[in-house]
Design a protein that fits this description.
The chain has 5 helices and 12 strands. It has helices at about 1-15, 40-55, 75-95, 115-120, 200; strands at about 20-30, 60-65, 100-110, 120-130, 190-195, 205-215, 220-230, 235-250, 255-270, 275-295, 300-320, 320-345. The longest helix is centred in the N-terminal third of the chain and has 21 residues, at about 75-95.
Length: about 350
């Protein structure tokens, strides 16, 4: 009897002591203020992780997103959560069950002095170590028959020993299922944005532009403007139009600085005083600048560009009620400004 109870209790203790065993810890690194998974991370960091998960399809995966101390707490909470969820979405897309993945954003890693190492999602892979099966119960020895008593009444049979039921192993809490999210772009990588140059508005040139970001470090911008300001008596004119496409290459870790080529085509009729100029311009050159974040939806950039242009124009002056040409069909090749501005940008998505 004592041997049977001891065997059952040992089995219960072994079942309660079953704990998950860590079989691998991996880190997926990200760029500053970003949560998209790069091709480099896929090849160097996620492929080894997938190989482990293929060998252990029953494993559970815990993903914790971390950030460096740069930025506000609210921003870091969002970034770290999205880093963890994007790694989960990648694993789920490769066929690993979503029910075996949990994610959370842990914010700033105060224990990691290297900012490059702090911008990561830490992936821990565990499997449950099952307890050894209970040994077969040892049958109780049959009780020896008691000697028959003399004329005394037969003793009452002893109650049969109650069957001992081993407690069930403690259930293993399932990790919460994290809904996969599509990788989201960083603050300055919206696919499309509308923009307008405040300096051109100050120069009475209404303008509007559209920017498209086909890649992380590449932007294609087309700006245009039109000013139909003619005076009724033609004493003063301030009219013109322009179209200016450009390609931007964003530089640096935060991708605030940019440079690139620009083309300019336009027409003008300018007569601020006694003498006026009317004609067209074609130019090409290089421009550069700096882009700064104002809010979640708004940015501002500062741009300056110079190039080489071809001008064809007429110069004229007012002669009574008519315009008299001073020079006609003048052609000139010269260095011209192709861009100068402070532009406000509304990120559409």
């Amino acid at each position: 009897m004592i041997l049977a109870v001891f065997t059952v209790l040992c089995g219960a203790v072994a079942a309660e002591g079953a704990e998950p065993k860590t079989i691998g810890e991996y880190a997926v690194h990200f760029r500053w203020n970003r949560w998209t998974i790069t091709d480099e991370s896929q090849h160097k960091e996620l492929i080894p992780l997938l190989e482990v998960l293929e060998a252990h399809p029953e494993a559970t995966v815990e993903i914790v997103g971390w950030a460096d101390p740069t930025g506000t707490k609210a921003a870091n909470d969002i970034v770290t959560t999205r880093r963890a969820k994007n790694v989960a979405a990648f694993l789920i897309g490769k066929g690993f069950p979503a029910g075996q993945i949990s994610t959370r954003g842990a914010g700033v890693d105060t224990q990691e002095p290297d900012p490059q190492q702090a911008r990561r999602a830490a992936v821990t892979v565990r499997i449950l170590v099952e307890p050894a099966p209970d040994p077969a119960p040892v049958p109780e020895p049959a009780p020896e028959p008691a000697p028959e008593p003399a004329p005394e009444p037969a003793p009452k049979p002893a109650p049969a020993p109650q069957e001992q039921i081993a407690p069930e192993p403690a259930p293993v809490a399932e990790a919460p299922v994290a809904e996969p999210t599509e990788p989201t772009e960083p603050w300055n990588l919206g696919k499309f944005a509308l923009r307008t140059n405040a300096l051109y508005w100050l120069g009475l040139m209404p303008n509007l532009g559209l920017e498209w970001r086909p890649a992380e470090r590449v932007g294609i911008v087309v700006n245009g403007g039109y000013a139909p300001w003619f005076s009724n008596d033609w004493k003063h004119n301030w009219a013109g139009w322009f179209v200016a496409p450009e390609v931007r290459i964003y530089l640096g870790e935060k991708m605030n600085w940019f440079v690139g080529p620009q083309f300019l085509a336009g027409g003008f009729n300018l007569k601020p005083g006694d003498k006026g100029y009317q004609g067209e311009v074609l130019a090409g050159g290089v421009m550069g600048g700096y882009r700064m974040k104002l809010s979640r939806c708004w940015d501002v950039d500062f741009t300056l560009g110079v190039g080489y242009g071809h001008l064809e124009y007429d110069s004229y002056r007012r002669d009574g009620d008519l315009n008299a040409y001073i020079k006609a069909n003048v052609e000139k090749n010269t260095v011209v400004p192709v861009q100068a501005g402070v532009s406000f940008i509304w990120k559409i998505n």
